[in-house]
Structure of 2-succinyl-5-enolpyruvyl-6-hydroxy-3-cyclohexene-1-carboxylate synthase:
Amino acid sequence: MSWTEDLTRYVCNFVDELAAGGLAHAVISPGSRSTPLALAFAEHKEIREWVIVDERSAAFFALGIAKASRKPVVLICTSGTAAANYYPAIVEAFYSHVPLVVLTADRPHELRDVDAPQAIDQIHLYGQYAKWFHEMALPESSPRMLSYARSKAARSLHEAEIQSGPVHLNFPFREPLVLDFSLENVWGERLGNGFYPLMSGNRTLNPGQFFAMEDCLKGKRKGLLVAGLGIDLEASKALLKLARNWAMPILADPLSQLRQLGDEESGKYIIDSYDALFKTEEVRTSLRPDYVIRFGAMPVSKTYRFYLEQHADIPQFIVSDETHFREPTGNRTSFIHSDCITFAEEAGKLKNLVAESGWIEKWFEVNSLAREVLSSSANEFMEGTAVLELAEQLPSNSILFSGNSMAIRDLDTFMFAAKRDLSVMANRGANGIDGVISSACGAAASGKRTTLLIGDLSFYHDMNGLFAAKHYKLPLTIVLVNNSGGGIFSFLPQANDKRHFEALFGTPVDLDFGKAAELYGADYVLARNGEEFSQALASSYDREGLSIIEVQTDRQENEQWHRDKWSKVNERISKKLFGE
């Protein structure tokens, strides 16, 4: 049997087993050594291939597809530094629990550590950030080795899904690298419903553990629920039902999907302005709970962390079906490893945990006051008012993708709970500004209209990501908030260093982003006021392809505007709570 036949059958059986396991998308970074993998994925009729030239962009693009589909996505690249360029997205996938299957091509063993070109040490290249690693055997087409190839393909999907993160397989290939698809039965034989059929159930507590929890909280009538990142729409519905059963407030992080359920009936339970409420120690003290039950990751809000640190002595429970210690405050915490929906349904039967009269009403009143202040724009056009307008216009059945730094914080502050058919996403694992455009493009690959809210530095950092939007005509609207640099640093102590602030932290790039829009064939609008912004948004949603709407603001004015809002919130809340 020839080398080409060995290579072809080995790789094709591997790829076909991925398809048998439900893999639908493969993102390919072009290169020579990865030719066998690239050809096999491109040829397989059940897998959609996406070709992204820039490896860093490709990896974040795959991350975006996986976020939107909630299924593993394959990444393929050649040997050498191509694989190293995947590293930032793999770190993000690790911390945000997104399943990726990374396939790196490599030189064969005889060409390693001998100064051969494009040969680096790729064994465990991603270290702890790959939740499973395997060095694939050299290709053979014996029945045993084809079975081996299928077993590793099946396992890679299971590991990525079960561990909710990236896995890495390294493929050493000898030349020649081209496959022969004319071979009979080139894709091999599938075994029933896959090589490793997997059955799994929901993790939950037993009845005795629920009663023990109830007994632990006996007499504590001011509970607080918190929904963080990772709570999808169905889990959000279950948590809202739990909040109703217990007459208890639920703090809703903007990435929890809970804010999309804010109709008139549920509005009294969903607290969406807690970041503004928690700005002062006095208010945090007045809103002290008896215990906290959090679902999912830590919320975006920094003041929520202050709130927890101030009340470090209260019982805290974190419910997650993943065995991760997501508790950055260091408070004493009980971890409950359970499916959130199952837990909420069973916990709702514990009638002794219903909150005392007046507790939910207190939260609803102060939250309403904060919303009233934050939503009053007085005809101003600022970064926060742009988010208010954006929240009003987002199309049904669409995706909102947020950048980090100021973008996600303005979303947290100014996107209030309302009834929306919307998915909200962000790269909040490592919280970096890299790869955000590419991730949003990956989300838009779902076919749903996607809106990206992003700052100018993050936009500049990933302009290569616009290639995917142009090349694949993705339905993407980008709201580019240009405050000429790192706006979030204006709110940090570094801003007091007038000598070095602009050079080291403000870092204005002074670019004409209209030229970038022209380069990538985007429709571009510079919105100078609220009316122009509103019209540009509406037009972008009626148009196919890529639209970029730039909003230019002043960092110092923006900082002062935010501080004025927070001060007014504090005045209104203090008057309500303390009669001041």
